[in-house]
Structures are given as structure tokens and as C-alpha cells.
Amino acid sequence: MNPLGPQHVRELIRFVGLTRTRELNCSECRDAAGELAERRLAGLPLDEALERVEHHLQLCPECTEEFRALERILREAP
Question: Per the confidence metrics, is the pTM higher than 0.85?
């Protein structure tokens, strides 16, 4: 078993610090990602539910990658 290096320990501590009582799962994040992207592009304020989506994106690289692709598509749409 390999011990964790200092960078891994820092990342784990960061993730623990970001933990909230109510976390979204990936499916819930994907369901609301379109609305979040549209509101961001329009410069509209976010409600609490969309703030939870943003929070999930801070923690989940897979959802973040999908979300960035969605934002690119929306920016390029006529």
C-alpha cells in the first residue's frame, strides 16, 4: 500500500472542507446543468438550487467537463 503524498492529503482536506449537509449527485447535477449554463450566459442571478449545482461542479471533474462542453455549445449557438 502506497502512503498518500502531501498533494493528495491537501486535496482530501480541501474536499472535506467543501462538504455540505446536502450534496447533489451527478444525475441531479446533470438535470440542472442546462439551466445553470443559460443563467450564467445571460448574467442572471442563481437560486439556491443552482448554487448547489455550482458546488457539485467544484467537486466533480466528470460533471465539470460535461458542463464546460455544454457552455461552449450554448455560447456558439445562434
Answer: no
Q: 42-71 burial, b if ≥16 CB within 10 A, otherwise e? A: eeeeeeeebebbebbbebbeebeebbeebb
- Tens digits of per-residue pLDDT, 54-65? 999 998 999 999
Which residues fall within 8 angstroms of residue 38, CB to CB, at 6 or more apart? Answer: 74
How many other β-carbons are positioned within 10 Å of the β-carbon of residue 8?
11
Nearest to 39, CA basis, from 15, 67, 2, 9 = 67
Domain-wise residue ranges, the chain: 24-76
Whether the pLDDT of residue 20 is over 70: the answer is no
Expressed in angstroms, the distance from the first to the final Cα of the chain is 53
